[in-house]
Design goal:
The chain is of the alpha+beta class. The chain has one domain: Gcn5-related N-acetyltransferase (GNAT) (Aminopeptidase). Strand 4, helix 4 and strand 5 form a beta-alpha-beta unit. The longest helix is centred in the N-terminal third of the chain and has 16 residues. The protein is globular and about 50 Å long.
């Protein structure tokens, strides 16, 4: 029996480990729900860790034996935008959630998201938006997210990634 995973906040020094995780997770787990024509253009763009996200103080990692086996978090800014980009002060955005395929069904992503949700709620947020992969819709639904509908995420000139917009309404504090 292995030791319980360690959950901790990411740092910029985790960049290589997170990219390794994303490179293992997305190609393996998305292939059942996306055609090769989408994966060949999208995966090279979505497997890169984002330094600002790693430094945000709201991106979580699960580690086992010093290896990052799951990651995910939230930010106040939407994916593809930066600080000062406007938006609603009470709305956050789920960001770059992934689990190593060898560690599925252990509650790792749930543990990360539960921490992220509690952290967002503790900072006064009332809603979390999520651009889910088709693959992850049941996972987010099990956490209480509602499906809003299909959407396309622009990844670059002429490259879009089909996703599903979802939302989680957070209860008011106290």
């Amino acid at each position: 029996m292995s030791a319980a995973p360690l959950f901790r906040l990411a740092t910029p020094g985790d960049l290589a480990a997170v990219e390794t995780l994303l490179g293992r997770s997305y190609p393996a787990l998305l292939k059942a729900d996306y055609p090769p024509s989408v994966l060949v253009t999208a995966v090279p763009r979505i497997v890169h860790a984002q330094p600002a996200l790693l430094a945000s103080g709201s991106y979580w990692l699960a580690e086992e034996g010093g290896t990052v086996i799951a990651a995910g978090g939230w930010t106040a800014t939407a994916p593809g935008t930066g600080p000062g980009s406007g938006g609603n002060a009470y709305t956050g955005h789920v960001r770059h959630v992934a689990t190593d395929p060898a560690h599925l069904r252990r509650g790792l992503a749930r543990g990360l998201l539960e921490r992220a949700i509690a952290q967002a709620q503790g900072q006064g947020l009332r809603r979390l938006n999520c651009l889910s992969t088709r693959t992850a819709v049941p996972f987010y639904a099990a956490l209480g997210f509602r499906t809003l509908g299909p959407t396309d995420v622009p990844l670059g000139p002429g490259i879009v990634f089909p996703a599903v917009a979802m939302v989680l309404d957070l209860p008011a504090p106290g």
